[in-house]
Amino acid sequence: MQMFHSARLKLTLFYVFVIFLISSVFSVAIYRVLSHELDRGLRLQRLRIERPDRVLNPDLPLFLYPADTQILRDELTRIRLNLILIDAAIVLVSGIAGYFLAGRTLAPIEEMVDEQKRFIADASHELRTPLTVLKTESEVALRDTKLDLSQAKNQIKSNLEEVAKLQSLSDHLLTLSRYEDISLSLDMRKIKLQEILEKAKGNVLLLAKKKRIQIKIESTRVEVSGEEVSLIELFTIFMDNAVKYSPLGSNVLVKVKTEGKKATVQIKDNGIGIKASDLPYIFNRFYRADMSREKNKVGGYGLGLPIAKSIVEYYHGKIDVISSPGKGTIFTISLPF
Ligand code: ADP
What we know:
This protein is an alpha+beta fold. It is 62% helix and 14% strand.
């Protein structure tokens, strides 16, 4: 991206400038100390030759002869040249290293911006579909001069369905942004997992009944520290998916266990399963496996699991998934006590 390339160059220039400043200060200091020492030596030397009566130890051997003065001056010039060369080399090396470093510094930011753009594009795409349906259906109905009351009511019903979809999408987006906010601070307390799971089950009971799916909770008395609403939201997502992606009349089993310093909740269904090639992506925002899109025609936006992931990350927990297509899926959520 052009923007990041120019930012990288600017950052590199900044690094080089700082290093150039430091090395120049050092070089000037070294040069000044050396030339000062040399001048002092020469002055002393001259004094010893010209006025031996004024120096402390006139008998000390002369370590320099006047002819050597020029040699010393030449040496100083060489030192100056060497310092300039060393500075130039430092600037060159710091330029290369700085460019590399600037790339590494900016890479995560670039990735974040890319992800944000993709997210906005996906969200707009999801919003467009129900909006287009709403618009065209309403336009067609308006143009229809023979539209009777019952047809109009049906039209409103269909419009309301689209509005409900939009509402659900905006709810999901708001929930996601809430849990992805790094400054989020939830009111933590000790909570009985059994109660949370029962409430989550209550949230999906309607759909489960429609599909004649039994949700069985096997739980021991386990308490975790957390905030009720977020935990209910978390387990609702997994139970809802288990019901959504399972055939009529099947079973969903929810099992609670304790392992060391954490509680694990296993949600097992006998549903359509997830292909191994889809598994790495199911926690990505807006990702929906083809099987759920086409075969099952199940509604959703691919935002449930990303929300679940954000909640579990907030609690420093972990989500594992095992799935075999056509047989079922097991999600295991571990939460520290
Ligand atoms: P969605 O709204 O599509 O359910 P999620 O983020 O909750 O979004 O899930 C992402 C995708 O993961 C789903 O579209 C589906 O393909 C797959 N998935 C999640 N849970 C299950 C499950 N229990 N069984 C089969 N597929 C699942």
